[in-house]
Design goal:
With 133 residues, this protein is an alpha+beta fold. The chain has five helices and five strands. Strands 3-2-1-4-5 form a five-stranded mixed sheet. A hairpin with a 5-residue loop joins strand 2 and strand 3. The longest helix is centred in the last third of the chain and has 13 residues. It is globular, with a radius of gyration of 15 Å.
Amino acid sequence: MVSASQAGLDQYLWKNRLLLIFAPGERDPRLAKQLADMSRSKCGIRDRDIRIFRLVKDQPAVSADGREQDLDQVALRKAYGIRGGDFAAILIGKDGGEKMRAFRPLPTNNLFEEVDAMPMRQDEIRTRLNDCS
């Protein structure tokens, strides 16, 4: 299993969970569906500290807000075993480990269930509840 640091994602360790969305082209319908699903769940994504990166073959990496990112897409594809024609959504935990992988658009509720079951997320929920008391 690849770690975030091995893939050059060190800057996000212990701060963010990452959703890496790999697609063979900008017009791939799976990419459009994945991005549409994510755009309807902005609050849940923000609450869970998830950063989304779109990695379309032969294009610069882009964040969910459309800004170009300084990520080495070739290295990421190699590190996670994603070929040029593949679609994949990969969830990376705050610890840098791969937590979930899907080869079709990942439903937001499945993503949130996976994150919410993580021990670190459980601690975050408890801390936030205690901060309100």
